[in-house]
Design goal:
This protein folds into 5 domains: 2-96, Sandwich (Immunoglobulin-like), CATH 2.60.40; 103-187, Immunoglobulins (Immunoglobulin-like, Sandwich); 195-286, Immunoglobulin-like, CATH 2.60.40; 293-379, Immunoglobulins (Immunoglobulin-like, Sandwich); 385-485, Mac-2 Binding Protein (Roll). A hairpin with a 5-residue loop joins strand 26 (263-270) and strand 27. By secondary structure, it is an all-beta fold. The protein contains 1 helix and 45 strands. Strands 1, 5, 6, 8, 9 and 10 form a 6-stranded mixed β-sheet that branches. Strands 21, 23, 24, 26, 27 and 28 form a 6-stranded mixed β-sheet that branches.
Length: 488
């Protein structure tokens, strides 16, 4: 073998402007390539390849580590039996960085829970390779958020506290030939404690209606993340309900309000920093009118022309103020109010036209209701009997009228048959007792006569005047008869 020589017979060709990921072809050739028996490639003085008649050495995916000094050696035939080794000059290969390792930035750097965050994967291409397409990957704690993304930015529209963690990104060429990762960046999501807790009601103003729905709405002016809302009575601290949700408001429904729901209520909100209480809201439960009851001042339904009858309408449970209307045969007689609740009355001076059906209506703004019909009968001729000084018109000392004079009845022979007839005549129902008239002082005046000595009723008569009678003789007012009817 002849000694190695360096000459222009063998040359090396290395491309310029080489970047990471490129395919690099290093060529070695001689004046007469067919004379080359073996071709060897060297980098930084070390042999990297040996070929028989191979004109090139290829680096398929160049890396900066491929930079260095390259040369070739070739064994060629000089004469029939003499070989010689030729060597090229040394040529330098520089593999340039295609883009630096990206840097991940978050805007804002300390995001608040519920806000949006923009992640940016920042790197740059050289001007000579500005058209190179890059793909971006965004990772959190080993889980890919976005992959093969053509934009260097990605937005997390709503970030949560649990999204805190280590984030990084990766930039890669479309051919996957070059890939680089950023350093990890820890992003801590800030949670805002709840504040300014308040409570409202529907219907508004804490005005609930018995039997209807009441909604208690709890609000927070600030606060992020999952919040636990709870509702309580002020007096007992009893919990009415609890809801945990990712919201700044929550509702508690009381489907059917009762009178017992009246009082003070409040709500609390807690998103892990401790509960914050709202102000107390007083709930007033208004009771609608249900079934007003109409009554007359007279215990019976038998009245007479000229009598003054008091019509009384009352709904004992309805919330004030209540307005009452009074009707005769569906014609309004008048109205009156009960500003503090209870009932109201209307006085009516009877005429022959006032017989018929009566009713009343009550309304406290929550819906009007009518009473049942009550029949009133007005009699043209007043009875010839009356009961005096009793607690009501169906009890007292018995007096009768004859020829325009009123006098008493002696209790001689006075029994339940007589009382039954008196009660029937007065429209006071059945007879109950036969008391002495002395029990209803003051006693009758001496000038008032005793008009009936003995009443001999059989109990079926419609009036005392129909009974057989014995006129007065020697009875005094200390023997006056009395009567008690069940109508009292």
């Amino acid at each position: 073998m002849a000694p190695i020589g360096t000459c222009n017979w063998l040359s090396i060709s290395i491309p310029n402007d080489v970047y990471e990921g490129d395919q690099v072809v290093i060529r070695c050739s001689g004046e007469k390539n067919d004379k080359i028996k073996r071709l060897m490639y060297y980098k930084d003085g070390s042999q990297i390849s040996s070929h028989h008649n191979a004109p090139s050495y290829t680096i398929s995916n160049a890396r900066p580590s491929d930079s260095g000094s390259y040369f070739c050696k070739a064994d060629r035939k000089l004469f029939f039996i003499i070989d010689v080794t030729e060597k090229t000059r040394t040529s330098w290969l520089t593999v340039q960085e295609l883009f630096p390792a990206p840097g991940l930035t978050a805007t804002p750097t300390r995001p608040t829970e519920g806000s949006s965050v923009m992640l940016s994967c920042n790197t740059r291409l050289p001007a000579a390779r500005s058209s190179t397409q890059l793909r971006y990957f965004f990772i959190r704690d080993g889980h890919t958020l976005k992959s093969d993304w053509s934009s260097s930015k990605v937005e997390i529209s709503v970030i949560r506290k649990e999204d805190s963690g280590y984030y990084w990104c990766e930039a890669m060429t479309a051919s996957h030939s070059v890939s680089k990762q950023s350093r990890q960046t820890y992003i801590e999501v800030q949670r805002v404690p709840v504040s300014q807790v308040s409570m409202e009601t529907h219907p508004p103003g804490g005005q609930a209606v018995e039997g209807e729905m009441l909604v208690l709405v709890c609000f927070v002016a600030e606060g992020t993340g999952v919040t636990t809302f709870s509702w309580h009575r002020e007096d007992t601290k009893e919990s009415l309900g609890r809801k945990t949700q990712r919201s700044q408001r929550a509702e508690l429904e009381i489907p059917v309000v009762r009178g017992s729901h009246g009082g003070g209520f409040y709500c609390t909100a807690d998103n892990s920093y401790g509960p914050i209480q709202s102000q107390v809201v007083n709930i007033t439960v208004r009771v609608p009118v249900s079934h007003p009851i109409l009554t007359f001042s007279a215990p019976g339904t038998l009245t007479f022309i000229g009598d003054v009858v008091e019509l009384h309408c009352e709904d004992r449970r309805a919330s004030p103020p209540i307005l009452y209307w009074f009707y005769h045969e569906n014609v309004i007689l008048g109205n009156t109010s009960a500003p503090f609740g209870g009932g109201a009355s209307f006085n009516l001076s009877l005429t022959s036209k006032h017989s018929g059906n009566y009713s009343c209506k009550a309304d406290n703004g929550l819906g009007a209701q009518h009473s049942e019909l009550v029949i009133l009968s007005v009699t043209d001729t007043p009875p010839k009997v009356r009961l005096m000084n009793g607690p009501h018109r169906c009890e007292g000392r018995v007096e009768v009228e004859q020829e325009g004079r009123w006098g008493t009845v002696c209790d001689d022979g006075w029994d339940m048959k007589d009382v039954t007839v008196v009660c029937r005549e007065l429209g006071c129902g059945a007879g109950k007792h036969t008391p002495a008239g002395m029990l209803y002082p003051p006693v009758a005046e001496k000038a008032q006569p005793v008009l009936i000595q003995v009443a001999l009723c059989n109990g079926t008569e419609e009036a005392l005047a129909e009974c057989e009678q014995i006129e007065a003789s020697d009875c005094g007012h200390d023997e006056d008869a009395g009567a008690v009817c069940e109508g009292g």
